[in-house]
């Protein structure tokens, strides 16, 4: 014990207290991806579950994942040796392939590389760490990083935490028309300092559920190219928006055809339901093979001091699935099951509100895509929903469509109706 005390394997209690090893509870409640515990305790209707839920309100282990898990257990060639620093090679290449497309010119020209990361968050983190060190000069913390207004809250923190001092919002959401503020978005691209970094949601924008159309993406790409802005895609929901992997990768692939060098952070948390396995990939599209090699050599150094080397289970599950034709087909089917359930809930909610004659227009419910929807309910209305109807949603009015089921949707629709009529 004397030795332990002297070597300080445990920090003295005062130190823990002073350094704040626990974040204040309000912070956790607001920033956390889980709904606050008070909500859960109430047993009401939670329209903000942190992940996909079935029509029974339960988490879903994808059948294809169960199948591949059994294959892994039965495969005596596999062991628990360390993976290479950059991750499982067959995972990295197959993950990049689903983002960029089988026949991607960039892959054929050997100018694509990848880093296996701890979830989409890890991929954003590795990309941010690299850019701070090596982009737009060395260790240039002044390069502006633009994130959409609003965005997934962690974007701000990940880039700030990597050392970027100037993380700014770009215009994205037009609250009045409940859709994309294209003019504002393009305006911010035009006035951003050259070489600024723009984080773009590849599809199923979180939290608004509003993506640019193909035509709008081409306008965004035109300005970004002309103004030499860096494209950092965040692809956390591929397959979830439309049910089709290729459709959901349209923007990423279009930017590649326009000759951009870029990063694309991919998460397999949602589309494989592998939330706690931390499976992500950072796809790097560079000018040429030599640049990829140089970027990866620096990435190795960054990974080494961050997590040293990544975990294998999730990466194996994904790699085996993507590289086996029948399993790949089955996975696409599983993804479609999830996307279709969300689309069905959107259509039903809109139809029910229209049938009730709820004041306002509700077309945005079906125009928005992916898991999330900005209902347009204001903070007072949200408060009413929580207090009077025990329906729990974010103060911003955002709901996760997976919180809706065939059993609770009538109650939710009637409650929204009552709220909109009674509270302005
Ligand atoms: C837009 C966006 N990016 C990244 C992530 C992170 O995903 P992961 O859990 O794989 O780190 C999320 C998760 O909610 C997200 O919504």
Automatic annotation (TrEMBL):
SUPFAM superfamilies: PLP-dependent transferases (SSF53383). GO terms for cellular component: cytosol. Residues 1-10 have a biased composition (Polar residues). Residues 1-36 are annotated as: Disordered. One of its GO terms (biological process) is aspartate biosynthetic process. It is found in: Cytoplasm. Its cofactor is pyridoxal 5'-phosphate. Gene3D superfamilies: Aspartate Aminotransferase, domain 1, Type I PLP-dependent aspartate aminotransferase-like (Major domain). Its EC number is 2.6.1.1. Keywords: Amino-acid biosynthesis, Aminotransferase, Cytoplasm, Pyridoxal phosphate, Transferase. Signal peptide: none annotated. Residues 51-416 form the Aminotransferase class I/classII large domain. InterPro entries: Aminotransferase_I/II_large (IPR004839), Asp_trans (IPR000796), NHTrfase_class1_PyrdxlP-BS (IPR004838), PyrdxlP-dep_Trfase (IPR015424), PyrdxlP-dep_Trfase_major (IPR015421), PyrdxlP-dep_Trfase_small (IPR015422). It catalyses: 3-sulfino-L-alanine + 2-oxoglutarate = 3-sulfinopyruvate + L-glutamate; L-cysteine + 2-oxoglutarate = 2-oxo-3-sulfanylpropanoate + L-glutamate; (2S)-2-aminobutanoate + 2-oxoglutarate = 2-oxobutanoate + L-glutamate; L-aspartate + 2-oxoglutarate = oxaloacetate + L-glutamate. GO terms for molecular function: L-aspartate:2-oxoglutarate aminotransferase activity; L-cysteine transaminase activity; pyridoxal phosphate binding. Belongs to the class-I pyridoxal-phosphate-dependent aminotransferase family. In eukaryotes there are cytoplasmic, mitochondrial and chloroplastic isozymes. Homodimer. This is Aspartate aminotransferase. The gene is GOT1.
